[in-house]
Amino acid sequence: MTTDVETKVDPRLTSGARINVKWVAVFVILGVLFPFFIDGYTSFQMTLTIIYAIAILGLNLLTGFNGQFSLGHSAFYAIGAYTAAILVYHLDFPVYVTIPIGGVVCFVAGFLFGLPALRLNGLYLALATFALAVAVPQILKSSHLEGLTGGVQGLDIFRPDVPEVLVNTFAMTMDQWWYLISFGIMLLLFWAAWNLINSRSGRAMMAIRDNPIAAQSMGINTSLYKSLTFGVSAFYTGIAGALAAIVIEFVAPDSFTFQLSILLFIGLVVGGTGSIWGAIFGGLFILMVPNIAEEVSTGLSYAVFGVILILVIYVMPSGIVGLVDILKVRLKKKL
Amino acid sequence: MELFLQQILTGLANGAIYACLALAVVMIYQAIDHFNFAQGEMAMFSTYICWSMIAVGIPYWVAFLLTIVISFAGGVAIERIIFKPIHNAPVLSHIVVFIGLLAIFNSLAGAIWDHTIKVFPSPFPDGSFNGLIGLHEIGMFFVTLILLGAIFCFFRFTRIGMAMQAAAANPDSAELVGIRVGWMLALGWGLAAAIGAVAGMMIAPIVFLDPNMMLGILLYGFAAAIVGGITSPGGAVAGGFLVGIIENLAGTYIPAIGSELKLTVALVLIVTVLLFKPNGLFGKSIVTRV
Amino acid sequence: MSNILEVKGLEASYGPTKALHGIDFSLEEGGVTTILGANGAGKTTTLRAISGMISRSGEILLAGKNIISLRTADITREGIAHVPEGRGTFVRMSTEDNLQLGAYSRSDKDEIARDIERVYSYFPILKQRRSQQAGTLSGGEAQMLAVGRALMLRPRLLLLDEPSFGLAPLIVQELFAILKKINVEDGVSMLLVEQNASLALELADHAYLLETGNIVISGTSQSILENETVRRSYLGY
Ligand SMILES: Nc1ncnc2c1ncn2[C@@H]1O[C@H](COP(=O)(O)OP(=O)(O)O)[C@@H](O)[C@H]1O
Ligand SMILES: [Mg+2]
Where are the domains of chain B? Predict the structure, then answer.
């Protein structure tokens, strides 16, 4: 049976279905060796980039592949971070275990939030998610929860030391160790995302993005898929949040304001909507560019950041990955 | 009971602030079919321009009118210079540009006028009505109503107003009936900037002038426009008052909320409203056959 | 008779992909010409190129004047009205507002009011629906509104993109009868794009057959009707 449904697919939005094993292998090897050639501070920065990339990938699954807009992912990031911090601080959980737990808690939170959000589209969804982003830090600060969250002060936690063997054989430092853990988690999650996108479910997600009515008529349970996507998206962002809490060894409500949501959103668009690898570029961008702006002019750093944003969109209206694609096509034509 | 009345009036006073900005939101939405996240910062910047003019001795109303004209021109210029070249970029990219503009205006205002909080004059007499609501708030209420009337007439009775809505809703068809869509966008930006300027100049006497004055208010402005129905200027104003009242009553009467969770509760209520009335309280539902 | 429209070497492309490879055709003043072709042949693209809605090159002479460098809004002011594929009504506005917008480029208020009445006399159902949101009209009504809106421009040339698409046969008959009337009584020339070839050839006096961006056959409707290839592939007998 063939279903003859015309959908408007923006070619920029479809995922690269092929994975180039050669390049991935190079990427993995370089990624693993990287921390041994840079100083501790840079490894720490790279760890943060990886964490952002994971969170942006989560947002991308929702927005880029499923067409749902969110300005509220700082909330899931916060929930992941606080889940890890509370488990470690109050209940002495092993730190490593709290990372997946943070993801799962966020999956549930995202799924539950996705249910009512089903009724909302476009701007309405943007407002609802934004409300979530505004509400969560306030709730975390609330005096009623202070015993659990530490209120405005937040919670201090400590990450475990590098395993003895690694210290002895590689003289591995804490920064290197946590960089490698984050890198591993990122690879795992990117691989999972790639599989998801290229599965039946992934095609259903994209069908919903491109033409919800047609998707429905093809027998896709759009409500279930949309809520599930919300959950999976929150899962990714929650893992990123948990990792961030552990790596930074501290959580406080003011680290998770709506500005973080906006940064993640910028990372999503600048990296490339609907592209898995775009998330890495997005992570690099939101980590580095504010610092660059700060160096250009301390007083006007926001203005510089704004100008850079606008210029980036001029040069790459569909993100860094979009530009890379265009360049590839040009190169191929020349050859 | 007295407390209740007092809270309603305070809510209305706050609501007037939101309503005023919500009108600018509706205007830009009619023009570009989207929100402009930099709207609040543009209004703030306009208000600073007015403040500077008053500071060098220009009479209030002259400064007021000049600010409107300058803001209009600025809005048109932003559309022509910044948005025209990326007209075909995806919507999400436009939002990033809005965010960029927001950062630029916020930062520039801080650099030009520094971050100290400034007093902004009101054109209305000092004092209050029976000690319940300030005269400035009452004046602002009427300014909002006048703006509302003007916007309503513009969209309902003028050719150009209709053309602007048409251009936003269906640019291809609009071109086919002879509407120059590019200029409609620019006009919409200009008008929204001008209305935003009025809103800013009305709001500043209450919240004082500082580069961050609009961040929170714009959120309420969006919420008001959405609750009221984004396509309806009247709905947006009603939405503004409603949001103001809800926010105050919730903060006063729901225990365990107090002022620290006021914003959260207001937003939750708004989202709840939307779940039951997805097009807002007064918005036309858009029925389209497929 | 003189030609209202003359198209020479018209090329058009979507980004890097070319959709029209230099086509030539012409249209007699007061006549109805149809462009036939399968899905994806480039019919819509041809109309969009004439209206300036996509990037194009070549020559498009409207009553002798080259309009290739004009923009869409200005082309409509030269007297070309385009009923686009999928109707393109303003769904949130009322029927009457749609008609008003059709006359956007005119300023003769009384004449506009008279023309609205004339559209209502062609399509009485629209008068009943005058204050109803256009998005709630039935397919046939929406198509009538789209044609009516185009007429409000007082065009010399009407471009019609598959007006029969998705309509019930009876409605199609009615619509085409009115198109005929508009052509004869008001002297509006028409360029009609259709997949329904027999229907189009009934109304048109000349026809062109488009295949993947090239014109492959042209002639009077009668000669096209008798053409073996056309009969087999487009008329099905
Ligand atoms: N927006 C578009 N972007 C890219 N290619 C397009 C677009 N619209 C049409 N095309 C291509 O141009 C060709 C002609 O399309 P079209 O003029 O719509 O055909 P028709 O109207 O005859 O069915 C087709 O190959 C189609 O795939
Ligand atoms: Mg077509």
Answer: 2-211
Instruction: Give C89's contacts in chain B (Cβ within 8 Å).
Output: 173
Atom of ligand 1 nearest to the CA of C39: 23
Q: What local confidence, expressed as pLDDT, does residue C229 receive? A: 78
Query: Does a structural domain hold residue A208?
Result: yes
Diameter over CA atoms, chain A: 66
Residues on chain B touching C76 (C-beta within 8 angstroms): 175-178
- In angstroms, rounded to a whole number, what is the distance separating the alpha carbons of residues B223 and A258? 16
C209 lines ligand 1 (CB under 6 A): no
B232 touches chain C (CB under 8 A): no
What domains sit in chain C, N to C, each tagged with a CATH number?
A: 3-235 (3.40.50.300)
pLDDT tens for residues A88-142? Answer: 999 989 999 999 999 999 999 999 998 888 878 777 888 888 888 888 988 898 8
Instruction: Convert the pLDDT of each residue in A235-248 to its tens digit.
Output: 999 999 999 999 99
On chain A, the residues whose CB falls within 8 A of the CB of B34 are 123
Q: Is residue A130 part of a domain?
A: yes
State residue A62 phi and psi, 5-degree precision: -75, -50
CA C58 to chain centre: 20
Domain assignment of residue A45, yes or no: yes
Residue of B nearest to A301 (CA): B107
Domain residue limits at A245: 38-255
Q: Are B105 and B111 in contact (CB under 8 A)?
A: no
Nearest CA residue ID for atom 12, ligand 1: C19
Does A208 have pLDDT greater than 70? yes
Q: Is residue A87 part of a domain?
A: yes
Burial classification of residue C55, based on how many CB atoms lie within 10 Å of its CB (0-12 exposed, 13-18 middle, 19 or more buried): exposed
Higher pLDDT, A152 or B56: B56
Q: Closest partner residue to C133 among B178, B180, B287, by Cβ?
A: B287
Q: Write the ipTM.
A: 0.91
User: From the list B89, B219, B260, which residue is nearest A317 (CB)?
Assistant: B89
Q: Does B165 touch chain C (CB under 8 A)?
A: yes
What single-letter DSSP state applies at residue C234?
I
Tally of structural domains, chain A: 1
